[in-house]
Amino acid sequence: MKVQSNAVVRPARNIRGSVELPGDKSISHRYGMLSGIAEGPSRIENYSTGADCASTLGCMRAMGVKWERKSEGQNVIEVQGHGLSLAAPAASLDCGNSGSTMRMLSGIVAGQSFTSEMIGDESLSRRPMERIIKPLSAMGAQIESQQGRPPLRITGGPLKPIDYKMPVASAQVKSCLLFAGLFADGETRVEESVRTRDHGEVALRAFGAELQRKMAGGGSEVRIRGGQRLQGIEARVPGDLSSAAFFLCAAALFPGSELTLPNLLMNPTRARLLDVLMQMGLHISVTQLEEIHGEMVGSLQVEGAKLKGTTIAGADSAALIDEIPVLAAIAPFTDQGIEVRDAKELRVKESDRISAVATNLRKMGAQVEEFEDGLKIPGGQTLHGAELDSFDDHRIAMAFAIAALRAEGETVIQGAEAAAISYPAFFETLEGLTAR
């Protein structure tokens, strides 16, 4: 039985300090998978401490990949690559709560010469997988599902290359198909109409794969040739920008706050959050910018100021999909409020995040208008502390811990343990930055 834990968040006066963030989840997942199908050893520092990325490593181990955490740091892992051919697992591949693990790893599993079952927890078992089932089936994999949802039973084998235009903008689906492309006889081409995060392409190149990328309009196309062998790497995963979003938004709530975030991922397909927060009035300066294994890394100096509102729509909704919950949670404290549209994808995340945000904001006394594809939250509101639900969703738990800093009175977040999915130390880190 899962034990629920509650977190109590009290109002704050200010945010001050420096935070070294755990390794980026998106990169950690991909490094964890690619190091397993590479040849030779890999050493990965600052691997994400979150439960989701541990699920990826657990699945790789179940398919014969040897890895260990080094004693000098819980987040240093050394992986002995198994090459492109993995071993048939003795039991189901348990993806836990991680949609990233199930979607991306399916591309690798589809190219193996065995049948495996991919399972997940109750939340993951409700999430749509048709978006990977369809293209992987077209490549020759046999996949059984529960009406397009997990568990997935995948019988892999030699794959055919595919020319695929993605109907839904998704970096996970793109990575899945590029990984599957390594096992195809020929060239696989993936086209997206809206440009999504490119961590899969960057990671493949870091491990020695060749691929061609072409920008087209607001989107892109990527081509990868099958049969390429990957080589192990030594790398340090930059700090997670999606986790940084919570502390950036905390600083944004308090004019005069001062925050330093060193060694942070600054990938252009992720840094839209910084543009939006700066447009809203947060002062952010970037220092020590450098490129490591194809990813941009830098340090942020942040100062709080009065916040204007904004509208998030179109390509921005795809670019900010993980950050929208916390932006929406602080919307009542901005001058003009925040409107979110074209974000229907939020309804099929770990929870229905549109509904979860609206429900919790209303419990705190906020006015909220809810749409099928987003929210409209007026600015200039005063919120009060309340008993809130995490909906077993890490981003909802963390987003409302931030909103609670400016509420009047105490806030209790039920199911706060959900934060451990991406950031086990979140609540103590936030408390360490908070001045009262």
CATH topology annotation of the largest domain: UDP-n-acetylglucosamine1-carboxyvinyl-transferase, Chain
Strand arrangement, major sheet? 16-17-15-2-24
**Helicity, as a percent range:** 25-40%
CATH classification, class level of the largest domain: Alpha Beta
Relevant terms:
436 residues, alpha/beta, 2 domains, UDP-n-acetylglucosamine1-carboxyvinyl-transferase, Chain, 4-stranded mixed β-sheet, single chain, globular, 24 strands
Tell me what you see in this structure.
There is one protein chain. This protein has 436 residues and is of the alpha/beta class. The chain folds into 2 domains: 6-22 and 238-435, Enolpyruvate transferase domain (UDP-n-acetylglucosamine1-carboxyvinyl-transferase, Chain); 25-236, Alpha-beta prism (UDP-n-acetylglucosamine1-carboxyvinyl-transferase, Chain), CATH 3.65.10.10. The chain has 13 helices and 24 strands. The strands form 6 sheets. A 5-stranded mixed sheet has the order 16-17-15-2-24. Strands 4-5-3-14 form a 4-stranded mixed sheet, covered by helices on one side. A 4-stranded mixed sheet has the order 6-7-9-8. A hairpin with a 2-residue loop joins strand 20 and strand 21. Helix 1 runs parallel beside helix 6 (199-206), helix 4 runs parallel beside helix 5 (171-181) and helix 5 packs parallel to helix 6 (199-206). The longest helix is centred in the N-terminal third of the chain and has 13 residues, at 25-37. It is globular, with a radius of gyration of 21 Å. The mean pLDDT is 96.
